[in-house]
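Q: What does the assembly look like in three dimensions?
Context provided by user:
Components: two
Sequences:
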Amino acid sequence: MIARDAVGVGLRPPHFQAALEATQEVDFLELVSENFLDPAGAPRRYLDSVKRHFPIVLHGVGLNLLGHAPLDERYLDALRELADFVDAPYVTDHLCWTAAHGMTHHDLLPMPYTEGLVEFAAERAAFVQERLGRPFGLENVSSYIEFTTSTLTESEFYTRVVKEASCWFMFDINNVFVSAHNHGYDPELYLDAIDFERVLQVHLAGHELTAAHGIIDTHDRAVDSAVWSLYKKAWQKGGPFPTLLEWDDKLPAFSVLTDEANKAKLIRV
Amino acid sequence: MKTLDDLEHFQHTFSTMLRAPLATESHTFSPAEAFYADELCAISKPGRAGSGRTRLGIYNRQYWFRLFSTLQSEFPLSARLLGFWTFNHWAQHFLQDAPPGHWDLGRAADGFFEFLLSAGKQDWVEGEPPSRLRVPRQALCEAAALDEAWRTVWRAPQVSAFRPTQHDIARLSEGRLLPRPSVAIVQERWPLADLRRSLSLHPGEDAIPLPSPHGQTQWLALLRTPDGTLELALDAAEARLLNLLRAHQFSLALSIFEAEQTASSSVTRAVSKELAAQVQVWLQRSVALGFWAGVESQR
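A: Here is the predicted structure of the complete assembly.
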């Protein structure tokens, strides 16, 4: 059970031991599902210990919801098995595509947002939720490109897919900020589109502002003050919701992560 | 995007752009913008940070650097001996022919060990010409083998250690000891395992110097334990015995070992007795350390 006002961090392999020694510093942990899908390898052994100390939720990067190919049944079976193993109250992944023609690109890739794609995505998201036997949340991705062939804005596409699938929002506030900056729209208008009663969890992360490419979603530093401001507005609009800090690159000590995540409790008062 | 065919076509075009090898003429890995399909560029909106083509390049570069970074962390010693510039060239060459197909990012490096072995033997070497590579081919092969062994040990399924019963011991001579998958045995002519452990002391991307070689080949066992991982130095004869036991029926392995040992020394009865005692010690140690998963009947 994750409390609605809970604060957590994404657990990455270098922090396994530190997390076990710091059981009081965060309310829950989020794991990248793909790191633990193999039931045989060493990561599962660590997970066996971690799950006794913290509630765990799963966040995937490889579902390929918007991919043209059929959803991978083996992947879904493994994900269900893992979710049962850690007793995850919910599972999340991204509203994007990640693979095509048998190749996995290991990136969260953009699409033109169209009416036809809403039905396709919603049908698949509903199927995944049913298959996992627990709430399934879709995350809005950060992006560096938009397409002239889109007939819907990202927020329109996102909210319609979640509604038609009767699934949930895994709402990434940093991603809203990154994409809004890169594409020149108002991030607060994005907040207005979200039904916060269907927000399973929000994400926060650090990003890098570059001269050549706009903002890159790097997850390698503390949360930007502008993202904290947007978080506060989201909280005022629709809180409480579980809050999760992602930090994937240039990992600092686990205590730095937990301190950064716990800033959320101070900022939203 | 009206039909599944449209979706597939878009993703095919985008995927091709993503996997376009990065250009290196400017001595950096740069997006290969000239090779992107015009039809994709035509629907890509320009923004405050450049044209549509330039923005596609962010994905192209990100795709490759994520994979470079993954291969660097899966083969950390090989990467630092080559230096990232050369290593990334090799990685790009490998991944063009073997793009990732598994949801586990780390498995993008599956097959890279074999590629490194063959790349080290070929005349073509991108990044640095062979004559300028500071690392001897043999050292590179051993470094790659060490990196690959750790990958294997880390990913190995959890299999209980073999604790032989009297019944097992009775049938051992006609059976074969099954190696535990979380144990590997490697050899090194240079102190590569030490170097690999100390990589964090050498931050950066340049090639690091290869230390002076050992006086003679050293052997190591790599193990995954309940508390983490372990490296153990092995006597050369002990390593030979363990490798024979991993490959052959128990009694055949012992026969080969004894024949080899007696051929390499002037054996007296006392030495032979001493060798038998030593074999017992090594066998007991290997069982105690959990080198084996069980005994397989050869009948």
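Follow-up: Chain A touches chain B through 46 residues (CB under 8 Å).
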